[in-house]
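COMPLEX REQUEST
Ligand: zinc ion
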Amino acid sequence: MNLILLGPPGAGKGTQAERLREDFGLPLISTGDILRSQVAEGTELGHEAKRYMDAGELVPDKVIVGMITERVGQGDARDGFLLDGFPRNIEQADALGEALTGLDRRLTAAMLIEAPDDELVRRLAGRRVCVKNPSHIYHVELDPPKHDGVCDQDGSRLIQRDDDSEETIRRRLEVYHSQTEPLIDYYDRAGLLRRFDGRRNPDEVHTHIRATVATLRLEEEL
Ligand SMILES: [Zn+2]
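STATUS: Structure written out below.
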């Protein structure tokens, strides 16, 4: 069960990835987590990544691919994994395919959670966080506080993070459309793509994905 999760920011990939990890006991591998842990552990790749990060540059594909390749070869990922946030472009997808072939394995499926841009912007731009405790999160439409701009739990002010500004979100969506969206075709042609409607509520999306993964697992066992 070697799975990847694809989809634009705000479509709910992170939420679904957490749930799938619980359902199927697959290790969840995210680029951000790997990067942080390798830098913290001071591995060779971690050092290399840190040089770019300290210089304010993006960590190049080659380094990221090296980290992911190493990670999927580790013991707990031997029976499968769930990749979130990787691959982000065709080059990374090619590299992942080669790495798996090298391990005598192959991808089981690429699961795509889709939603239209305007819906994604509405979800992300409506988010407000507490200045005192960033785990206190609200949404102006979907989960509003009792009093405008004030945290229900401690009365602190609520703010919109820079990451959640409409401008930043639109820019992230542009990057997604130009870099990552070509992967939809890429995996579709390989017969690996499974589509899910990210406009539905998270429980419905989860039920649908879980059923699909259960079926895939049965097919793998045959
Ligand atoms: Zn608060």
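REMARKS: Residues 202-221 form the longest helix (20 residues). The pocket of zinc ion is lined by residues 130, 132-133, 136, 151, 153-154, 156 (CB under 6 Å).
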